[in-house]
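Entry:
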Amino acid sequence: MRAVVVGAGIGGLVAARLLARRGLEVVVLEAHTYPGGLAGSFYHRGVFLDAGATLLSGFAPGGPMRLLEEALDLSFPVEPLPEGFPLMAVHLEEGTLLRPVGRRAERAAQEAFFGKGVLPFWDWQAERAEALWGLAPELPFPPETTKDLLRLLRLAPRLLPLLPDLLRKAKDLAPKDPRFLRFLDAQLLIAAQCGVGEAYALYTAAALDLPHRGAALPRGGMGAIARALAEGLEVRYKARALRLLTRGRRAYGVEVLYGGKRRGEREVVEGDLFVLNVPPEPLLGLPPRVPKDAWGAFVLHGLLPFPVDPPYYRQNARERPYAFLSLRPEGRKTAFSLSLHTPLGLWEGLSREEYGRLKACWTERALALGGALLPGLREAEWLLAGTPRTYARFAGRAWVGGYPQTHPFRFARLRVLENAYQVGERVFPGQSVPAVALGALRLFKSFL
């Protein structure tokens, strides 16, 4: 039996390795020259730069990434961060709030900055996060098959305590301190693609817990995770999938256009099972489904000619758009990516000249906001900017993240056709590298 995986993102690679361990013949088709997709690293001027995701966690005992290492019999090249490590600094009008690794350390930092009034929220968050992350590896939600429903029934005793918060918003449980709400708004826009007024409570609890799920620094950038997953697999790079070929409700092949040494060559790669780590609509000749409330990303990459001390993640929550700065040591230098949310419509229908002016404007805006996080940012040896147009061209979609996490039923279905399924940020359990990986694990358990 042959499985064809379209897209060498984290979800696709995890699914491919699981299928290969089951004994299937697996081929992975990737349009680019590197694996990982939006959690990959590309090479530019001698430096690996992260295409999208930069923060990695899930390496605590029993955490998602540790479970994957055991399931796939591999070891990811990461440096675990110790309790108390200064992971992230959030800059607010009143000062800078540190998010250290470990709940006890963060609780102390939150109390010192906001006062005791926020502690009940963090008690709730910790309790819900423990329950949710414990359920995540085995939770078939939303259920799509009879098998899923039966598994949900078996999990009912562990799910019942979560039901009171199922439809509540994060703002309903947060203290009304405007400083704290601003902090949550900025953090959730990164993790949930929506603010504190829209994000649902249970997703908020899980997303805020990422620093305490075993945070780690990948050696060689985020792409090191993808490269470890791709090792030993048949991955065909510069192989762009054009369309999924079907008979009735079943797929039988993928039409591929090659680049590189096979530039211009077309081939139909046939298979029995198909896993799509890309939006399925273009492969089926349908218009892309872009959420009306989706955000785009403006990202500025660069190389600083000096070393930088932790924290390696910094957010400017003093004004919108909230700028998020990720830093990675490169010897005596520092590679960085600086990301801002941007409206998608802003970049549509522009002439080349208008696009160039808007890109220059956002570059200056990013440097101004990022400079508040790290003086000397303008001393970068070089800069490389990416816009929603860039992501549309290289990732097949212009928007960031999956669906904004506004309610717990906002996920695409896993099954696309009778023998074709999708993985990635659009399907449960949502965004972040460990969550996308768990989504692929869920597919394997539920359907395969």
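Residues 2-45+55-77+221-290+402-447 form a domain with the FAD/NAD(P)-binding domain fold (CATH 3.50.50.60).
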